[in-house]
């Protein structure tokens, strides 16, 4: 049984407090500068663990620390924890507000031998693993294209989940991206210090694979997602509902892809509804594992590089190639 400190007791902090206990570990201390944060309102029995003094976290002998604040403070808090000798840290996504600060934190963690896990939860999702298992399957062939159709904007806060999913399924970060932001973005509900526009993003990977994320501020519905293989497709309309899976008949597998009108047959795809607490449990397990991280800081840095490239592309009005130039790395985006 490990002792875990929790920094940030809002809605995501509340989920992690549940995940810590569901994992069989103890909450050592909960830091939040608010007098009565959401997690304490939701579970008053946690009030005795709550402190508004950050030094209490730094001085506690804990096995891991979870950071559930907004992105503007992630890097500074993690740096303080590393300097205080903490060796296992979990950070809620998005990792940072600039690529340069994300890279700096990754370098610091590597120098001090600190394991940092970033909670891009779909890396722990059974549906993601099932999609990866289909990639190269004789019935479907290679995964070639992903189309994410979402509303609600927030290309930074929400969109980094989808960016990371595309990177995970398509073999790493793209070589080139293009992005156009929404024409109008509403005020951010986390405060006026944040600006997190939606938009439409195109990704071009070195193997010819590609992805589209349409996350407009002017769309208020969940449109779903399509995962398109050489000879089949997996789709969902609601992520927690049924997923459809269709592919060519076995006798048609060897026929040219130009025969795109061949009939498809329905097959079974066992989908699992998303569960944010279970994802947090998996992130905790990842933090305590000695195996290669499933959602380590290196992957989160790649996600931040793609996000920074998208914003750089939108400002420039043309496609942008990766790796990014120094000026693009330093640019700060006030995402929550």
Describe the protein's topology.
Blueprint: E1 3-7, H1 11-22, E2 26-31, H2 38-42, E3 50-51, H3 55-59, E4 64-67, H4 71-83, E5 88-92, H5 99-112, E6 115-119, H6 126-134, E7 143-151, H7 159-170, E8 176-181, E9 199-204, E10 210-216, E11 224-229, E12 232-236, E13 243-248, E14 264-267, H8 276-288, H9 297-316, E15 320-321, H10 326-330
Summarize the structure.
It comes from Ciceribacter lividus. By secondary structure, the protein is an alpha/beta fold.
The CATH level-2 architecture of the largest domain is identified as 2-Layer Sandwich
| Mean model confidence by pLDDT | 97
Number of strands: 15
Structural class assignment: alpha/beta
Low-confidence stretches: none
Question: Order of strands side by side in the largest beta sheet?
Answer: 14-13-12-11-7-10-9-8-15
Considering DSSP H and I runs of 4 or more, what fraction of the residues is helical?
25-40%
Say what the CATH topology of the largest domain is: Dihydrodipicolinate Reductase, domain 2
Number of helices: 10
- H/E element order: EHEHEHEHEHEHEHEEEEEEEHHEH
Give the CATH superfamily of the largest domain: Dihydrodipicolinate Reductase, domain 2
Distance between the termini: 32 Å
Judging from the principal axes of the Cα atoms, what is the shape? globular
Main β-sheet description: 9 strands, mixed
The CATH top-level class label of the largest domain: Alpha Beta
Count of discrete structural domains: 2
Radius of gyration: 21 Å
Strand content: 15-25%
């Amino acid at each position: 049984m490990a002792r875990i400190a929790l920094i940030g007791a809002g809605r995501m902090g509340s989920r992690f407090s549940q995940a810590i206990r569901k994992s069989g570990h103890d909450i050592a201390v909960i830091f939040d500068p608010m007098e009565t944060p959401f997690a304490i309102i939701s579970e008053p029995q946690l009030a005795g663990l709550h402190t508004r003094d950050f030094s209490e976290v730094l001085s506690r002998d804990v096995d891991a620390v979870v950071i559930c604040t907004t992105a503007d403070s992630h890097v500074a808090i993690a740096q303080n924890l590393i300097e205080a000798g903490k060796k296992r840290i979990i950070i809620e996504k998005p990792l940072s507000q600039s690529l340069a600060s994300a890279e700096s934190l990754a370098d610091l963690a590597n120098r001090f031998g600190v394991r940092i896990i970033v909670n891009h939860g779909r890396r722990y999702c059974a549906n993601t693993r099932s999609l990866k298992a289909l990639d190269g399957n004789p019935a479907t062939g290679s995964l070639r294209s992903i189309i994410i159709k979402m509303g609600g904007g927030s290309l930074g806060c929400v969109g980094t989940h989808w960016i990371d999913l595309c990177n995970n399924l398509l073999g790493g970060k793209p070589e080139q991206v293009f992005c156009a932001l929404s024409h109008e973005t509403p005020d951010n509900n986390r405060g006026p210090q944040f600006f997190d526009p939606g938009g439409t993003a195109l990704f071009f990977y070195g193997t010819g694979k590609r992805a589209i994320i349409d996350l407009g501020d002017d769309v208020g519905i969940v449109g779903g997602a399509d995962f398109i293989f050489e000879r089949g497709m997996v789709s969902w309309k609601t992520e927690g509902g049924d997923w459809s899976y269709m592919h060519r008949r076995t006798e048609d597998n060897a026929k040219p892809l130009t025969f795109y009108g061949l009939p498809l047959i329905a097959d079974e795809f066992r989908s699992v509804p998303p569960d944010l607490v279970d994802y947090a449990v998996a992130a905790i397990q990842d933090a305590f594992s000695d195996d290669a991280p499933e959602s380590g800081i290196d992957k989160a840095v790649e996600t931040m590089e793609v996000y920074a490239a998208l914003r750089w592309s939108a400002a420039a009005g043309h496609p942008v190639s990766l790796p990014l130039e120094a000026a693009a790395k330093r640019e700060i985006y006030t995402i929550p």
